[in-house]
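QA checklist item 7 of 12: single-chain prediction sanity check.
[x] sequence parsed
[x] length recorded as 55
[x] structure emitted
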Amino acid sequence: MKNKFDWETEEERLHRHMRIPPKKKLEWLLQMNEFSWRCYSKKTRAVFFKLRNLR
């Protein structure tokens, strides 16, 4: 295991993230989405949906 103060190359970082199972990544993304949704104000949510619908 690397010391948290060691610098890692881009390739090492990618390999480290690739070892995380896809299910765990999706669970983390869901939790982040729920958290950010709770933190949004009504105005921010309105802007978010407006921008999303423009796509």
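[x] summary fact logged: Residues 29 and 49 are 19 Å apart (CA to CA).
[ ] second reviewer sign-off
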